[in-house]
Amino acid sequence: MLLRRRRRRRSDPIPAGIIPKDFVVRHDLLRRLCLDPIMGLTPPRPWAPMTDAEWAALEPVLAGMGCGLHDRGRPLDCTPRERLDAIFRWATTKQRGGRAPWRLLPEEFGKPDTVSRSYRRWARQGLWARLLVELALKREALASLAHRLCCAFRRAIRVMGSLRSIVLARRLKLFSALPAPSQFLPDPDLSEIYREVHLAFADSMLKRLWFPPARLFRLLKAMHRIAGGRTRIPRWMEPA
């Protein structure tokens, strides 16, 4: 006796309202996902000591946050300007396509351990986040420092708090301050945008049973993957 092949059930049409027609345009997803991460990259520049004008732009910020100029405890063995130059020198140094260790810092900048302690202390005080905001507000005035500030910020992300720092850099549209390409990192703001679609889908499944098409499941899975980011990202993917 020949067994009859079970016919696969045809998918039901997608109910209206799950994916609004103006969803992509209303949230400007093309710009957010494709254009901004490319147009918002800062061109790399070779390291150079800060000029007097560049230091004059950064000095009030350091003074206001008490970083280097009025630190408590043991005083620095160099000026805050020299210490900042040493940090920028390390932050912009690459080794085999990835970030360089502190031990490669040239001797004229001081002991690597001492510089790294200042760097982490200033990160916990919020200096790098504040400088990134200043860069976004005064992009033309601080254009020459953009590459150095982005490098210093992204290397301090773990100290400052990964997710909070990633959200800040993305909202400021300074994508070179991210530790990897934007599409590989978690995006809570994008998750809130996609929440509308996922809630509409869940609500429709609760109201009546229907057989969603495979392409809808693939779309929802892709939305979840993009908003959640990758769990592991190779260091060579860090911007220049």
From TrEMBL:
Record-annotated Insertion element IS402-like domain positions: 50-131
Superkingdom of the source species: Bacteria
InterPro entries: IS402-like_dom (IPR025161)
The protein's name: Transposase
